[in-house]
Amino acid sequence: MRFVLRRLLLFVVALLAISVAVFAMLRILPGDVAAVMAGVNSPPERVAQLRAELGLDRPLPVQYLDWCGALVRGDFGTSMLTGRSITTQVGARAAVTFPLIILGLVIAMLIGIPLGCAAALARGRRSRAIYRLVSIIGGAIPALWGGMLLILLFGRGVGLLGVLPSQGFPTSGWGTPGAALASLALPALSVGVIVGASLMRYTRSALGEFVASGYIEMAMSCGMTRTQAVLHVGLRLAMPQMVSVVGLTFAEMITGVMVIENLFALPGLGTGLVTDVGNRDLIAVQGELFMLAAFFLLIGLVVDLAHRALDPRLKASADGNEVSA
Question: What is the pLDDT of residue 107?
Fold first, then answer.
């Protein structure tokens, strides 16, 4: 409980620091935020009106406290471009981005973990070199180039096979789940191949440490084969490390899929953030950046707690330190 409370306290402190950074970042931009949002040729009256509407004519501490109070109530503001609530706007975009990330992560795990196990079990020099080459090539593929190649192979209307849609997302959203999943298939595969190569290297490295240790020999002395010992004992011992890697990879993929969303014309968080920045909708950008940063911190907190729960050695080490202290 003490460990959890400490992590929650650090989480709250980090959130406050992120809120200050995001708030200050948009206030130290060159020029007036209201003038930037109003446009280059806007009359001074329009700029003054916009400053009053946004509360930019008040002192900065008052603006920050009002914004924090709205955040606590779940109010992230209103988009100046669309007039919609930023929370609703981000929710609609997240309904595209998060399924894309989850599907891409599932594909990456289906590719990376089995190949990583096979690479750790490989004994011949040639087979190890082949697995190493596969991981290097997979990780070196640019997301843009990989996505375009998949479009040319499988994209409907332009590809050789033409079996999957390559642009857009259904207007009905997840009301038609079949069409929604089909529109995410190629983007998820583009992301999954690249992330799968990274997971392959992590899995091979984690299992390699245990293969070189005495755990595998002890399991083999109990009657297991080498493959069974690596897959049953090695994977279990590597699970805390793999959970951390997968969790942090999930958080990183939110910004990593930005190129893929633009390539496949998906109305996700990455595309929306780029659009809002281009349209100078800085109030929306402020709320979206804070929400993304808060999500990163939340994933880090969950990974930290899961790592602690899955690895009893961390608890035993902490208890020993407290007793010695």
Answer: 92
Task: Give the model confidence (pLDDT) of 276-305 as tens digits.
Answer: 877 777 778 888 888 888 888 888 888 888
Q: Taking the CA of residue 41 as centre, how many other CA atoms within 13 Å lie in the half-sphere pointing to its CB? A: 0
Distance CA 79, CA 47 (A): 17
Q: Note down the domain range covering 106.
A: 86-324
Strand locations in the chain, DSSP E? none
Question: pTM here?
Answer: 0.80
Largest CA distance in the chain: 83
3-state helix, strand, coil in the chain (%, to 5): 80, 0, 20
Domain count along the chain: 1
For residue 93, being part of any structural domain is answered with: yes
50: phi then psi, degrees, rounded to nearest 5 = -65, -40
Length of the chain: 325
In a domain, 297, yes or no: yes
Coil, strand, or helix at residue 74?
coil
- How far, in Å, are 149, 151, 166, 210, 325 from residue 158 at the CA level? 11, 7, 9, 47, 68
Domain contains 5: no
- Residue 78 bridge partners (DSSP): 85
CA 311 distance to own-chain centroid: 24
- Flag whether 39 is in a domain: no
Cβ-based neighbour number of residue 187 at 10 Å? 28
Q: Could you tell me the CATH number of the domain that includes residue 307?
A: 1.10.3720.10
**Long-range CB contacts for residues 56-62, cutoff 8 Å, separation at least 24:** 56/32, 60/27
The predicted pLDDT at position 323 comes to 36
Q: Could you give the CA distance from residue 305 to residue 111 in angstroms, rounded to a whole number?
A: 26
Q: Which residues of the chain have pLDDT under 70?
A: 29-33, 36-37, 39-40, 81, 212, 311-325
pLDDT number for residue 54: 72
For the stretch 164-173, contacts whose Cβ atoms lie closer than 8 Å and that sit 24 or more positions apart, written own/partner, are 166/264, 167/264, 167/265, 168/264, 168/265, 168/266, 169/96, 169/265, 169/266, 169/267, 173/92, 173/95
